[in-house]
Amino acid sequence: MYYVYILRCSDDSLYTGITTDLKRRVKEHNGEIVGKGARYTHARRPVYMVYQQSFKNRSSASQEESRIKKMTKIQKEEFIKTNQK
Description:
Strand content: 15-25%
Number of strands: 3
CATH architecture: 3-Layer(aba) Sandwich
Distance between the termini: 19 Å
Number of domains: 1
Order of helices and strands: EEHHEHH
Mean pLDDT: 94
Number of helices: 4
Largest sheet: 3 strands, antiparallel
CATH superfamily: GIY-YIG endonuclease
Shape: globular
CATH topology: GIY-YIG endonuclease
């Protein structure tokens, strides 16, 4: 199972990524697992999960990640709002 996720950073920016383990990935982004995470989130900690969606395969997840990354911040905020569970 693959997941596309959106994190809200401490500076209110949004980070979109893909993973197979959401809990581990958030820990990596927050520096709880040393040497992992993204350079972008390193200086914007703490980060919080605001959106997640599961996919059966990496290809589908990557397509959705790409689609979300092309959105403006305003579009992403609306997307998060309309897709919260």
